[in-house]
Design a protein that fits this description.
Order of helices and strands of chain B: HEHEHEHEHEEEEEH
Largest sheet of chain B: 9 strands, mixed
Strand content of chain B: 15-25%
Radius of gyration of chain B: 19 Å
CATH superfamily of chain B: P-loop containing nucleotide triphosphate hydrolases
CATH topology of chain B: Rossmann fold
CATH architecture of the largest domain in chain A: 2-Layer Sandwich
CATH class of chain B: Alpha Beta
Helix content of chain B: 25-40%
CATH class of the largest domain in chain A: Alpha Beta
Strand content of chain A: 25-35%
CATH architecture of chain B: 3-Layer(aba) Sandwich
Number of strands of chain A: 20
Number of helices of chain B: 6
Number of domains of chain A: 3
Number of domains of chain B: 1
Oligomer: heterodimer
Largest interface: A-B, 59 and 58 residues
């Protein structure tokens, strides 16, 4: 199938945008300017200013001489890129491949898209009409090559569509700069009287290359379709992506539900066929007025189950604001993994960490609460209690070392050890009394000390001498002394946990 | 007369499944050495697939309750079963679970502060057949909420444990049992110095279709060891004389 490209030229991109924000400017000539080499230079004009004869690159002082009431506003250097990016995202409704053509254009790869709008002409007309509604003056053209489309957009008055393989004829009458050449080359062509493309198109290639360098030939061939030209889409093309345009804008939750279900059905069928499961999916809802709402889900295990994925999306439907209505749904699956098919068991083996219902449950919980609430712990090779366990990265991660149970560890632990007052005989006996939260506890039995040294390569500080103690009423505590007994009495006692 | 009593016994047995009790097979029954505690429960088995409720007031009792629950969890989670532990703060030391026989990496901890979220997660988890048990900190539990949870477990056969610290109101709930666990001074072999096995005073305050009771147990290698209360009293009396 032949490629089809559309180029869109925003003649007054920045000024149109300013007019949208300040409608009072619509009736006046105004320009945007940036200081350069000590003077204000015009970087954009609106249509009325252009009619007055003011051009881009003029100094503001000169322009004021032509039109004294000229309004001058400050420009920003990255403004056009920002605006084009926004419009490019909006244009994703027409094709998934949209590229920015700085300073004032967009390139759309429309191969195989136009028939959805009923042919090339209605397609391009729809784009132009919709952009005009948004408030931008545009010119657009469609051709088999980017070069031809660009030339027609910028230099032809009437042609909008160049039929397939007709680009050579369409280019004949256009001036040489339509080929996107460097000014130096255009100037040289001009000097030699080669004003139109037709005048040098059929000249022998070696002589063209010798006189004008390789760029002219490259651009000519790109425009004619003899040389491939690639565009960089604003969004990387995602392999697993489904689109669902709606005839009428959707405003109800039920409609969104149906859309999600349909998208998931086609996606999951594809995933299943390829033996894959999704780990992450994003639903983009393109609203009528151009805003994009999105919701995202993640799974703990690759999944291609419509029912489960739908239940994850269902939790988040409430966060979509449909506004005036949603006209396009796009479901993207950026993370896919190979799903190991589950062996069917004759009997239910019951529960384990690998069970599908469990990972589906965790997906739902994480979907509702967000990340950072679900923890699973594995033993770590540290004696320091706070570091003796680590977070598991996945539900399937198995402990590499066994859990230690030689030394007593309390079931309830304080996140930060708390200071206590203690009466203890020195040098290494367990305490006799301690006061915690205002209550005096008399210690009846004790085990210890268990000395745990600081890991000097991780943290500096004193060691801890831990004692497990039991008080009169049978409650058991985990206490420690920080540091050695010494004459300066720098040691401190802490409570760190409660034994069962 | 004999015929009448046997009819009543039969009818009682028919009522039990309707109330959510099912006789578990020998394989699924807990092997925690219930001992005299057995008599308190219908079918003389620790009820699984139901909701249990634990009351306690302070952090020391929370640790004791956690220990008792862990012993039962260990038995429920035999053969690589998984469990979810929902809490409102990070206070469980995973390494300590190992001492009660629970594999800490088979426990999924979920930490949330909002009570509404805890209740939602609890209900969703109890419906999940991939789990053996769910433990949750829910201080305030209304009858309606407990009924929802009980209905969820009756279908999925997951066992639920609700830990209630300092509830402001203690009303009737749909939980099958209500427990209170407190620490007791430990005993060592031949009164040697040091701390012995964890020992608890276990009070079964309520049990549906059973007999509430009070026991003293020790946890030894993941199983209960029972003490007769009478013997304990006698011992203390003996000491006084001596």
């Amino acid at each position: 199938m032949a490629s089809r490209f559309i180029t869109i030229w925003f003649k007054y991109l920045k000024t149109d945008w300013v007019t949208l924000r300040k409608p009072t400017l619509a009736q006046k000539p105004f320009v945007l300017a940036l200081p350069s080499h000590g003077k204000l230079v015009i970087t954009a004009t609106n249509k009325l200013a252009a009619i007055e004869g003011i051009e881009i690159g003029m100094a503001v002082a000169d322009a004021r001489a032509i039109y004294p009431a000229l309004e001058v506003l400050d420009d920003r250097s990255e403004l056009s890129e920002k605006l084009l990016k926004g419009i490019a995202k909006w244009c994703v409704r027409y094709t998934p491949m949209v590229a920015i053509d700085l300073p004032d254009g967009l390139i759309l790869d429309a191969s195989g898209c136009a028939h959805l709008w009923g042919g090339d002409t209605p397609y391009v007309k729809d784009i132009i009409a919709r952009l005009k509604l948004l408030g931008y003056a545009v010119k657009a053209a469609m051709a088999d090559t980017i070069g031809a489309a660009w030339a027609i957009t910028h230099y032809s008055r009437n042609i909008v569509i160049v039929e397939s393989n007709e680009q050579a004829t369409a280019l004949l009458d256009l001036p040489a700069p339509a080929l996107r050449l460097e000014p130096a080359i255009t100037e040289r062509l001009q000097k030699l009287g080669l004003r139109e493309i037709s005048s040098f198109m059929h000249l022998p290639k070696p002589s063209l290359r010798r006189r004008f360098g390789p760029q002219l030939l490259l651009r000519l061939h790109q425009a004619l379709g003899l040389e491939e030209e690639h565009i960089v889409s604003i969004k990387p093309i995602i392999e697993f992506q489904e689109r669902l345009p709606c005839l009428d804008p959707i405003v109800h939750a039920k409609g969104i539900e149906i859309a999600i279900e349909r998208l998931l059905q086609t996606l999951c069928a594809r995933l299943k066929k390829e033996g894959k499961g999704l780990r992450k999916a994003i639903l983009h809802c393109h609203r009528v007025e151009g805003k994009i709402e999105q919701i995202e889900i993640g799974t703990h295990q690759p999944s291609s189950s419509v029912q489960h994925l739908f239940s994850l999306f269902e939790i988040k439907i409430g966060s979509i604001t449909p506004g005036l209505g949603i006209e396009l749904f796009i479901m993207e699956v950026p993370v896919v993994e190979i799903a190991i098919p589950v062996q069917e068991a004759l009997w239910n083996t019951g529960s384990s960490l690998d069970a599908a219902p469990l990972s589906e449950l965790l997906d739902r919980i994480e979907g509702k609460l967000g990340p950072g609430h679900i923890f699973r712990y594995l033993p770590d090779e540290h004696y320091w209690p706070e570091r003796s366990f680590k977070h598991a990265t996945s539900i399937h991660e198995k402990p590499l070392i066994p859990w230690k149970k030689e030394r007593p560890r309390p079931l309830q632990i304080l996140n930060h050890p708390e200071r206590i007052e203690v009466t203890a005989p020195i040098p290494d006996y367990p305490p006799m009394l301690f006061r915690y939260k205002g209550k005096l506890h008399k210690i009846m039995k004790a085990d210890g000390p268990e000395r745990i040294e600081q890991e000097w390569w991780l943290q500096e500080g004193k060691h801890r001498d831990y004692y497990a103690v039991e008080v009169e009423d049978g409650c058991r505590y985990w206490l420690f002394r920080l540091g050695h007994y010494d004459a300066a009495k720098t040691y401190e006692w802490f409570i760190h946990g409660f034994f069962a | 007369m004999a015929a009448k009593s046997s009819i009543i016994a039969r009818l009682e047995k028919e009522i039990l499944p309707l109330q959510g009790f099912t006789k578990t097979t020998a394989n699924a029954a807990l092997d925690v050495n219930l001992g005299p505690m057995r008599k308190a429960f219908p079918f003389s088995q620790f009820p699984t697939g139901v909701m249990h409720e634990f009351m306690f007031s302070n952090v020391e009792a929370a640790a004791a309750t956690g220990g008792f629950v862990s012993v039962i969890l260990a038995s429920l989670m035999r053969n690589a079963g998984a469990c979810i532990w929902i809490s409102n703060k990070k206070n469980i030391f995973p390494s300590a679970l190992k001492a009660f026989g629970v594999l800490p990496h088979h426990v999924i901890f979920i930490q949330v502060t909002k009570e509404k979220d805890i209740a939602w997660i609890m209900e969703e988890s109890l419906k999940c057949e991939g789990l053996r048990a769910v433990v949750a900190d829910i201080p305030e539990l209304s009858f309606t909420a407990s009924r929802r949870l009980q209905l969820a477990v009756e279908k999925s056969k997951v066992t639920g444990f609700i830990l209630r610290q300092n509830p402001t109101r203690v009303s009737t709930t749909a939980c099958v049992t209500r427990w209170k666990i407190t620490s007791l001074p430990t005993q060592t072999f031949n009164n040697m110095p040091g701390i012995g096995f964890p020992k608890w005073n276990v009070e079964l305050l309520k049990v549906r279709n059973g007999h509430p009771g009070k026991w003293q147990v020790e946890c030894v290698a993941g199983k209960f060891r029972h003490f007769s209360i009478a013997a304990q009293v006698e011992k203390i009396a003996h000491k006084k004389v001596g």
